[in-house]
């Protein structure tokens, strides 16, 4: 039995991309329900590009009136999908409420499992057949490159590889001191960031010994608090690192 994955297209493309990637190994073919507006905005094109889905893997696009329940159901009926040879994985997260209701109503009459991704969360829940709304974690993690591509943002230099300036833990600590500005450590962090901001405007590398002693001591304290480690020589910060920390 073949498995068809069904997605409703809306302006927010990331929930669709996450769902497609999460269930890719279980999917034989894709069915996308969209609108004229979404076609003009190229949301589905962006999704297909990120997920590397070809036309041969898809049913023809089902373009519906987003505010007509009857139109949604009639367009799906016209596909004449098999009730015996196919099973469906349905993502009802996207689209208008009318589109979601129409898709839910239609596929509830088939051999289907339907899912919903809560907005802003890396998890999903099965809502049909009822599964006590058990929440499942989305294992797939989207890259920044694919996130931007999913929203149609063109990357000027796609072949250039970027890496983290510092570990995620450094960024986390830096952010924590930004949101608790009155704490003693946070005050010291802000002082150090101000030093780095001034240095960043000069667009050059930094050797700690080149700073006045009072600034050097403040900067040492700041970087120690957030766990910053020089990437090369001790007490040396590259321009890239300075800009990263200085923007806090």
Query: Overall 3D geometry?
Result: elongated
The tally of beta strands, per DSSP, is 9
Secondary-structure-derived class: alpha/beta
CATH architectural type of the largest domain: 3-Layer(aba) Sandwich
Q: Write down the secondary-structure element order.
A: EHEHHEHEHEEEHHHEHEH
Structure description:
With 248 residues, the chain is an alpha/beta fold. It has two domains: 2-150, Hypothetical protein VC1899 like domain (Restriction endonuclease-like) (Rossmann fold), CATH 3.40.50; 168-246, no CATH class. The protein has ten helices and nine strands. The protein has helices at residues 14-22, 36-41, 43-51, 69-77, 97-107, 144-150, 168-179, 184-201, 213-226, 239-246, and strands at residues 2-8, 29-34, 62-63, 86-91, 112-116, 123-128, 135-137, 206-207, 236-237. The strands form two sheets. Strands 3-2-1-4-5-6-7 form a seven-stranded mixed β-sheet, sandwiched between helices. The longest helix has 18 residues, at 184-201.
Short description:
The chain has 248 residues and is of the alpha/beta class. The protein has two domains: 149 residues, Hypothetical protein VC1899 like domain (Restriction endonuclease-like) (Rossmann fold), CATH 3.40.50; 79 residues, no CATH class.
Write the layout of secondary structure elements.
Layout: E1 2-8, H1 14-22, E2 29-34, H2 36-41, H3 43-51, E3 62-63, H4 69-77, E4 86-91, H5 97-107, E5 112-116, E6 123-128, E7 135-137, H6 144-150, H7 168-179, H8 184-201, E8 206-207, H9 213-226, E9 236-237, H10 239-246
Parallel strand pairs: 1-2, 1-4, 2-3, 4-5
Antiparallel strand pairs: 5-6, 6-7, 8-9
Helix pairs in contact: 3-6, 4-5, 7-8, 8-9, 8-10
């Amino acid at each position: 039995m073949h498995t068809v994955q069904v997605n409703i297209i809306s302006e927010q493309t990331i929930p669709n991309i996450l769902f497609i990637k999460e269930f890719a190994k279980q999917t034989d073919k894709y069915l996308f329900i969209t609108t004229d507006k979404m076609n003009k905005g190229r949301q589905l094109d962006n999704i297909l590009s990120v997920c590397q889905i070809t036309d041969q893997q898809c049913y023809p696009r089902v373009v519906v009136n987003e505010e007509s329940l009857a139109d949604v159901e009639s367009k799906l009926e016209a596909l004449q999908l098999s009730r015996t040879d196919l099973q469906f994985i349905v993502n009802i997260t996207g689209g208008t409420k009318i589109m979601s209701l129409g898709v839910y109503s239609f596929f509830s009459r088939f051999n289907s499992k339907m899912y919903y991704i809560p907005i802003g969360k890396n998890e999903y829940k099965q809502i049909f057949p009822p599964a006590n709304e058990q929440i499942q974690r989305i294992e797939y993690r989207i890259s920044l490159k694919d996130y931007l591509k999913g929203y149609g943002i063109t990357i000027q230099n796609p072949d250039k590889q970027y890496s983290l300036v510092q570990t995620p833990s450094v960024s986390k600590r830096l952010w924590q001191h930004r949101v608790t500005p009155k704490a003693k450590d946070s005050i010291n962090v802000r002082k150090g960031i101000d030093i780095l901001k001034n240095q960043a405007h000069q667009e050059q590398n930094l050797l700690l010994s080149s700073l006045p002693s009072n600034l050097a001591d403040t900067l040492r304290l700041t970087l120690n608090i957030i766990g910053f480690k020089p990437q090369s020589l001790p007490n040396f910060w590259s321009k890239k690192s300075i800009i990263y920390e200085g923007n806090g």
